[in-house]
Design a protein that fits this description.
Length: 523
């Protein structure tokens, strides 16, 4: 079979058909943008303190003094998880003793929040944390909620990669979109943290999975010159648009159930796309379904106003191979490339999701910080596109990782009172890591042939989900040392930037079609 790009060259690069596919596949990514980071607001933890029952019979002075102070970031703040023993306070109040004058508070026995908690209603009216008291002894459930979402994404990335190679890009694209939207809607009716989390895991199975399949579908339908634009300025920027919509929705809808309802509506709008977006002709050819591929190519030719060559059917007809996951490790050379790619995706993912999920912990307004974290992705994708057009892949990815990791490491040197500088550095670090992350999809797709391309992107994406599962716990470490997450994320990002330089270079090469072409890759 002739090279596929050569075969469809008569269609042109940027006709009405390509523009339609470019826009619709990119637009289908918008729900991924806000669903992927929704935990920032759905599972946000507001300020809280122990509740003192209204009928406790305490004087105003003792009610105000019922919560002990503790040091946090160099300041004395009311404890979130302890109160003075209520029985003792009631006795002191009955005897008209005054806190701090007649009674030394440091000697009063303390107890846990036996009557629950009072939560600040700023910035959140309600979250799953306030709904089911995921604080103090149960605060481990908050990062676990986010991690289990990414466990679902991991499973979905692995399963969808193999299923789409077996059953087609289009069918799995819409199936995973349905899973994401349908189970997000069911979460609204959660009656317990356990139910919410199980549903969140299933949502995760559909979330990034359809992102990967949409990326592969566009990569295989669009021509070489448009492919890079689609992978960066198309898919990624529309993801960022969805990400930017999240804090906007959350700002006006501060109840977590209503926010979830609002976030599921755009997914429903994608249903009509089933009758517009075609299957990948490149995949159909790899499966020997030549007549279906030819019909799609003829439809594209009709939309673009060009004539289909008479010999097209003969050119499509060729023997095809089938692949399994182990083909990603077929030779020692390919196995080394695959293992290094898995590490690259995982460490980059830790930096990306760690910085994204940490926005609510930065100084200032949580909604504004989340919006800035989303906005900074747009110039990152533009820079990634320019780098992919002009420079080798390895140097582009490695350079942006060095930038992101180095800036993140520098945050620990910023004086505590310079909050704005810390936020600027965090956003600059996000810029570098995001640019690198967006280039990984293009780079990986260029390394592997058609028959295992989606499987390879799915496997490496699965590895990145391992990183995203770990990332919430990097954020969680900030409760003990605010600089520790940045030290760990920065170090891993710089390390993987060095390892990237040892991968093969795909810049300027056509997409490989067969295992024979794949085996020519030198590591």
């Amino acid at each position: 079979m002739r090279d596929y790009d050569e075969l469809i060259a008569f269609l042109g690069e940027w006709g009405p058909f390509q523009r339609l596919i470019f826009f619709l596949l990119s637009a289908s990514i918008i729900p991924n943008g806000f669903n992927g980071m929704s935990a920032v607001f759905l599972a946000g933890t507001p300020d809280h303190r122990c509740r003192v029952p209204a009928g406790a019979n305490l004087s105003g002075e003792w009610l105000n003094a019922s919560i002990p102070l503790e040091e946090h970031d160099g300041r004395q703040v009311p404890s979130r998880c302890r109160r003075y023993r209520l029985e003792a306070l009631v006795n002191f109040s009955a005897l008209d003793l005054r806190p701090g004058l007649d009674v030394n508070l440091s000697q009063v026995e303390q107890e846990k929040c036996l009557d629950g908690w009072e939560y600040s209603r700023d910035p959140f009216l309600s979250t799953v944390v306030t709904e089911w008291d995921l604080v103090c002894d149960d605060d481990w459930k908050t990062p676990l909620t986010t991690s289990l979402f990414f466990v679902g994404v991991l499973l979905g990335s692995f399963i969808s990669g193999q299923l789409s190679d077996r059953f087609g890009r289009k069918a799995i694209l819409f199936a995973t979109m349905g899973v994401q939207t349908g189970f997000s809607f069911l979460q609204i009716f959660s009656t317990s943290w356990e139910m919410f989390t199980v549903l969140f895991l299933i949502v995760g199975m559909g979330q990034i999975s359809n992102y990967v399949v949409a990326f592969i579908l566009g990569t295989e339908i669009l021509g070489k010159s448009v492919r890079i634009i689609f992978s960066t300025l198309g898919v990624c920027i529309f993801f960022a648009i969805g990400y930017m919509l999240l804090p906007l929705f959350a700002y006006f809808i501060r109840d977590w159930r209503m926010l979830l309802l609002a976030l599921t509506v755009p997914g429903v709008c994608c249903i009509p796309l089933w009758w517009i977006i075609p299957e990948s002709p490149r995949w159909l050819i790899s499966q020997g379904r030549f007549q279906e591929a030819e019909r799609i190519i003829q439809r594209a030719a009709k939309m673009n106003g060009v004539t289909v060559p008479e010999a097209l059917g003969e050119d499509l007809n060729a023997s095809q191979e089938h692949a399994i996951l182990l083909d990603l490790f077929r030779t020692q050379n390919i196995a080394v490339i695959t293992v290094m790619s898995l590490l690259l995706w995982m460490f980059t993912s830790i930096g990306y999701f760690g910085l994204s999920l940490n926005t609510s912990n930065l100084h200032g307004n949580a909604y504004l910080n989340c919006f800035l974290s989303a906005v900074i992705e747009v110039p990152a994708y533009v820079i990634a596109w320019l780098l992919l057009r002009t420079l080798p892949r390895r140097y582009s990815i490695s350079g942006t990782l060095f930038l992101g990791g180095g800036v993140i490491l520098f945050i620990q040197l910023v004086p505590p009172d310079l909050h704005l500088l810390s936020v600027i550095l965090a956003m600059l670090g996000k810029f570098g890591v995001t640019a690198a992350f967006s280039m990984l999809y293009v780079y990986t797709a260029e390394l592997y042939p058609t028959i295992v391309r989606n499987m390879a992107v799915g496997a490496t994406s699965m590895s990145s989900r391992v990183g995203s599962i770990i990332a919430p716990y990097f954020v969680y470490l900030g409760a003990y040392d605010r600089y520790l997450p940045y030290i760990l994320m920065g170090s891993l990002t710089v390390l993987i930037g060095i390892l990237t330089l040892f991968l093969p270079e795909s810049y300027g090469n056509p997409l490989p079609e067969t295992f024979q072409e794949m085996l020519r890759i030198k590591g």
